[in-house]
Amino acid sequence: MEKNTNNIVLRFMTCGSVDDGKSTVIGRLLFDTKTILTDTLSQIEKTSKKKGMTEVDLSLITDGLQAEREQGITIDVAYRYFSTGKRKYIIADAPGHEQYTRNMVTAASTAQLAIILIDARKGILTQTKRHTYLAKLLGIKHVIVAVNKMDLIQYDEEKYKSICENYKEFEKNILPLNSPININFLPISALKGDMIVDRGNSMDWYKGATLLQLLEDLDTSEDIKESSLRFPVQYVCRPRESANKELHDFRAFMGRIESGLLKVNDKVKVLPSGHESSIKEIRIGEQLIKEAISEQSVTVSLVDEIDVSRGDMLVHHDDSVGAIKNFTAMVCWFAEESLSPNRTYLIMHTTQTSKAKISSINYKVNIQTLDSELVNELKTNDIANISFKLAQPLIVDSYNKNRSTGAFIIIDESTFHTVGAGMIQLLD
Amino acid sequence: MKKLLSHLDWLESEAIHIMREVAGQCSNPVLLFSGGKDSLCLLRVAEKAFRPGRFPFPMMHIDTGHNYPEVINFRDKKINDLGERLIVASLEDSMKKGSIVLKSNDEPRNKYQSITLLEAIEEHDFDCCIGGARRDEEKARAKERIMSFRDEFGQWDPKNQRPELWDLYNAKVHKGENIRAFPISNWTEMDVWQYIEREKLELPNIYFAHQREIVRRDNSIVPVTNVTPVRENELVEKIMVRFRTVGDITCTAPVESDADTVEKIILETASTSISERGATRLDDQVSEASMEQRKKEGYF
Ligand SMILES: Nc1nc2c(ncn2[C@@H]2O[C@H](COP(=O)(O)OP(=O)(O)OP(=O)(O)O)[C@@H](O)[C@H]2O)c(=O)[nH]1
Ligand SMILES: [Mg+2]
User: Fold this and answer.
1) A380 touches chain B (CB under 8 A)
2) Which has the least CB within 10 A, A394, B2, B10, B60?
3) 3-state secondary structure of B256
4) Which domains does chain A have, with CATH numbers?
């Protein structure tokens, strides 16, 4: 473990078909970076023995639920952490089973990079295609294709190369075509530890970087293209009752900069009302700062007394973005009950919630063939293009331009369950 | 090249965002506060989230009655300095009412905390409890959502969690149901100590190396106290120890250490080979799934 305090966070996930070795890769990364401590390891050794295994089963590091250990599969996302001195990594281990696709989507929504595992014996499977599609759909910009279990094909370079070629071939045709991704390939054995942290001695023919090296060297600086200010108001601060008389008229707006840069004296407008003012102060707690950058949670006060409440959005005064009541989005449906065009749902977007009706289900993506199909309802794990009509106007951007203001979740009005998630597509 | 936040700033900003979502979405939240290091980080995050205003929630301590007096004194002083409100819900009250029946008087009380917690939630009508649990602590916690739904009986259903995408947190519940919100889910023990150092947070002094009377029992160091007395044939030693977690005396063990400053603790944390719970929680070792089980029953 490193004690650097200036690490940059990198969030990544593993995906791929059942048993391709997603959990094992993560276990191996943690093990070889000495992140697994002895007591955890001895517990895992004990459990592996109990299951009659001769080697330590590293997938047990992330498969923490009783049901997962019984069945030897991943059911829900596990989050794990390690640091190297350069980066703090937040890893999401996603399940490969089709039945748990929604949990894979959950992991993908916050990942910057996806490691797609392929079993070297099996090559590209439907689930490999599906996860590649989902990773792209969810806006992941970096993919590492790791051909795993090389030990089981005698570390055969030719087979590795042909899997890579096949992958490149089908990836070209996977929508959304307009979101180019940066792809790296490498051969690994998660079980033996080849090319994860150490190179091992079985694949001298491979001259590229190890998995850890690829992660360490990844350049994410170009990921955020959107530079327009988006500041959704989460909470209004009115410390009226405070003993401090000076604070009697203090009113400030709390939230996180979702994109762009906010500086003191910037001219801003409040949406949807359109009222304009300028920034008087920016603070974090009691400390005043001059400017706030993307992802920073701050408290902002304005020069003028204008009406602002939770759900409003601050943008720069000359921004042309407006509030809209109709949009089209790609939706992943999670619930057991099918999506019904006759019902009203709640849409939660940034800090705003609105009632919504389905105007039309335009098409469903056949996840086997990736073709479009016409349907009238959506079932669990379906992905479809849907047009919505909202009761309240929302300030939205296209998901491919802005992951925060382009995303929403769908909530069932009566059960309050999260039943779906959507990525907005605006025509520009 | 875009400016990026350092990992501590990023984690802090995420935690502030989560707390403000609780404040914005829930009608009657509470922050669970033990006086321990994780909940002290939560309080600092709450200050950054809500000052110069008041916290939009009270603090609540689930008191097992088995505490180190230093921690309780520290707890009271801290809340007083902040000028915020503390609710103490105590296991002893549940025992008087008859809702907790101990098998024996020296039985570890941690698992009974859920009962008192659920009673307090009902009494005060809380719709959300903010807790300081971290995913790196334990394998069941590693699976839990940041805003974790609990049913009327406080139960967690690990196989059927609400999907939680991006940072859109669905905190909607019906009456009687409850959200547990964990703003520092993504922090590790190291992050916590680095944050304590950076923010110059004060801690109860039992976190720092000090002389203490202990006995060695089944691979653990057990402090000698009135609720954990010496057993027959045990040898009492006086050694330098510190606590990595604080909680109910009967299930929290210290580790041998000379680290008497935050800086030294960070160095020790960087080179330790034993996890926080493995070293110090006598209650998690009982069975491999004990945390998952406790969470299913309403635990934090
Ligand atoms: N021989 C060999 N076996 C491997 C390798 N990687 C993983 N395995 C084995 O493959 C099996 C499945 O591994 P997991 O890591 O659980 O697979 P997974 O992709 O996480 O599976 P799900 O999460 O259930 O989709 C286990 O028995 C592993 O030990 C490898 O590189 N070589
Ligand atoms: Mg797995």
Assistant:
1) no
2) B2
3) strand
4) 9-217 (3.40.50.300), 231-316 (2.40.30.10), 323-427 (2.40.30.10)
